[in-house]
Structure formats: structure tokens, C-alpha cells
Specification:
By secondary structure, the chain is mostly helical. It has one helix and no strands. The chain starts with 23 loop residues before the first helix and ends in a 14-residue tail after the last helix.
Length: 66
Amino acid sequence: MPIVLPLMPVIYNRVDPTLLGMPFFYWCQLGFAFLASGVIAFVHKKVTAARKQGGKTVATAGERVG
């Protein structure tokens, strides 16, 4: 979601409401960046924890999945 929505500026291309003098368009993009960073950090922590417990999370090169 935080990757797809920024690709559709027609949804959030407006000035109002402003935040600290910044138009909505700019602070919405900044919010998407922080949201994407949070999602990436969450997934990284989950994958790292699963690997430490010995679980297999992703296939390596040349390995069949399924």
C-alpha cells in the first residue's frame, strides 16, 4: 500500500489541508515515505526473528519453492 499509493498522485494532488505551512501533496508524500520505512522495518524484524529460530523464510538461488 505505501508503495502503490504514491504512484497515483491524482488521489492526493491538492494544497489543503496544510501542515506547518506545507501543502498536503508534500506532507502526504513524506508520510508515505515514513510508512514504507515502518513496513520495511517490521518485515525485516519478523524475517530476522524467524531465521534466528531456525525457520526457513525465503528460498535461496537455485532452490525450488513449493
